[in-house]
Amino acid sequence: MIIFKSINKLNKCIENIDNIGFVPTMGSIHNGHSSLIKKSKKICKKTLVSIFVNPKQFNNKKDFINYPRNTKRDIRILRKLNVDYVLLPTYSDIYGAKENRLIKIPKINKILCAKYRPGHFEGVLQVINQYLIKLNVQKIFLGEKDYQQLKIISNFVRKRFDIKIVACKTIRHKNTFALSSRNQLLIKEDLYKLSEIFKILKSFKLKLKKSFKYKYKISDVKNLIRKMGVKLEYLEMRDKHTLSKKCNKSNFKIFISYYYKKIRFIDNI
Ligand code: AMP
Description:
about 270 residues
């Protein structure tokens, strides 16, 4: 495994290789990330993982400061997974580059996380764009856990780059909540609360699958979740392809964002 701190140096090393799979992350590697890496290793000749905690995608300074970081542990895990290349870019490598520019997201996308975290997806796209302009990669692996991000990056990449997006299923803790780096900020007992919230969502989803008339019960579900001591940011049903509010029994997904112990979690089922 070769570790690079510069995008240009990394690209010099990989520019002649075809079929490179790329897994961009913010580190604090968990089994959700590992599943993307394993998928890349299965279908690509070489696998590249980047770790960069991008300040521009945090609209709250405290959230950025408190975001879990453990590069030494991450490197150990990536070595075990037999990753070929790791990129740990510096801030100036990303934001100091002359090609770097702010990318606006279409107004139509200002829903869900984009509505509550202004500038978040612009920050995400700025980094992704910087990577893809410079790096010779053929496939990029993204998790469905960050479903809106997957859609926004896919639309962006499809228009500008000849790179295939590989969407990967959400990996969950014992079939309940989605694994997230932020889980590391909680103690074991707190995870129980996350499982309970997931169970409420799952049972609501099952009801909706039976009959979509239950959609009118969403305010009851919101109340139930609020009673669990979490601050609900949004709970919405949307079309899983277009993210439009117009959805039906066969194409809907439930999207949630909430704060528990001042830590923000998102999920979708
Ligand atoms: P992050 O480090 O949180 O920015 O995530 C890096 C990549 O891993 C993104 O494409 C995420 O969607 C994906 N990811 C994070 N958590 C999970 C999970 N539980 N299951 C599947 N993919 C995930």
